[in-house]
Amino acid sequence: MKSNFEINGNEAIIKINKNIYSKEIVVQTTYVLLDKYYFLIDCEEEYWIVSMIPKEDAKISEKSVFRFFDELIESSSYLDQMKNTSEIRQMILERAILTQGVSNSDEE
Fold first, then answer.
1. Which helix (H) or strand (E) holds 62?
2. What are the residues whose beta carbons fall under 8 Å from the beta carbon of 100, sequence distance 6 or more?
3. Per-residue pLDDT averaged across 32-37, rounded?
4. pTM for this model (two decimals)
């Protein structure tokens, strides 16, 4: 399997395929891990390039990078589910607002 990351000193450089993950997903993933790492996001023609540096005196390791990949998949799944259920959530919200409006007008 071709590796899509490398560790240079205390920095991990991660390549993420743009055809698989959107910028929104990459940013969401880095946001989740901001408490432990500094991030720089850049791009090439086909890849998002994420530089990941630990905060404090921690060392970067493959385990850290694999945690990033886990969060990447979780963020992708979460955003997909949000998009898939957006119409249902919109209907629930509209009904709640309509119901609230009807009960308020009955009281007056």
1. helix 62-84
2. none
3. 94
4. 0.74
